[in-house]
């Protein structure tokens, strides 16, 4: 898990340093959260801490809530 977190953080940090807007795509976040909540949250936190914007998560929450009431 540590390697994936470092890779995610490095990728997001590089994009931000290059003046790009980094978004975390949480398309499968809720499936991952159901299987392993600690890992799913760790992935999102790592990306946000590295400078990613979290707008995609809010959209996915609405989509998930509608599909899985």
Topology:
Elements: H1 2-17, H2 29-35, H3 37-49, H4 55-67
Helix pairs in contact: 1-3, 2-3
Number of domains: 1
Order of helices and strands: HHHH
Shape field: elongated
Tally the helices. Answer: 4
Rg measurement, Å: 13 Å
Poorly predicted parts: none
Strand content: under 5%
End-to-end CA span: 31 Å
Average pLDDT metric: 76
Please give the share of residues in helix.
over 70%
Structural class from helices and strands? Answer: mainly alpha
Number of strands: 0
Largest sheet: none
How would you characterize this protein structure?
The chain is mainly α. The protein is built from 4 helices and no strands. The chain has helices at 2-17, 29-35, 37-49, 55-67. It starts with a helix and ends with a helix. The model has no long low-confidence stretch (mean pLDDT 76).
Give a short overview.
It contains 4 helices and no strands. The chain has one domain. It is an all-alpha fold and 69 residues long.
Features:
4 helices; 69 residues; single chain; mainly alpha
